[in-house]
């Protein structure tokens, strides 16, 4: 059995989350099955993987362009794989006004719906990532602050480990002793 965690990352936090998911899965899944963690640009044959987890940062409420294009190109090749997705934004790092905007946009569900246009999903989650002053323009940062936004690393490793662990358990149950 082959397992793939693939991601696109602009500033590194999605990459580190993908690596963490890979190490959690590796503790559940033993040889001869293999778990690969690869950036999207290094995935040459997506259809060969039985289980796939895909991740992207969120910019302006949608997956970044590279990741959405990759998914629309490769979605059909994943039709025989079980697929999960994770998005990395900063939904809880903003102030009350912006949070209301995000809630009204139902960011997590909207992202899942957009991803599902290209691939059948077993599950989707929106994680908090890292957002620093140096990541955006002075103008963007000014308005971010006005709306009560914060800067920092908001990743919740416990939540990430739990999500990955549950996927690992589902897979182990599904394929039993063959993993
Ligand atoms: C220009 C820009 C736009 C962003 N838009 C959103 C957004 O709409 N929703 C959200 O939850 N996070 C948003 N973020 C936060 C990033 O998605 C977050 O910082 C993420 O951790 C980045 O992942 P990376 O380090 O892998 O690039 C935005 C960040 C930038 C720089």
From TrEMBL:
Highest taxon of the source?
A: Eukaryota
What are the residue boundaries of the Flavodoxin domain, all occurrences included? 4-91
Which Pfam family is one of those matched by this entry? Flavodoxin_5
Protein name listed in UniProt: Flavodoxin domain-containing protein
């Amino acid at each position: 059995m082959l397992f793939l965690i693939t991601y696109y990352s602009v500033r590194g936090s999605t990459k580190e989350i993908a690596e963490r998911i890979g190490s959690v899965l590796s503790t559940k899944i033993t040889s001869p099955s293999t778990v690969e963690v690869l950036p999207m640009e290094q995935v040459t044959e997506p259809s060969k993987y039985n289980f796939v987890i895909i991740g992207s940062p969120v910019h302006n409420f949608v997956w970044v362009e590279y990741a959405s294009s990759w998914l629309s190109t490769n979605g059909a090749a994943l039709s025989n794989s079980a697929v999960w997705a994770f998005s990395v934004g900063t939904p809880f790092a903003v102030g009350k006004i912006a949070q209301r905007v995000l809630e009204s946009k139902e960011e997590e569900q909207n992202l899942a719906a957009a991803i599902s246009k290209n691939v059948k999903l077993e599950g989707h989650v929106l994680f908090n990532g890292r957002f620093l002053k140096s990541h955006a323009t002075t103008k963007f940062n000014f308005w971010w602050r006005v709306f009560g936004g914060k800067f920092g690393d908001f990743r919740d490793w416990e939540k990430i480990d739990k999500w990955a662990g549950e996927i690992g358990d589902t897979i182990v149950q599904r394929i039993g002793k063959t993993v």
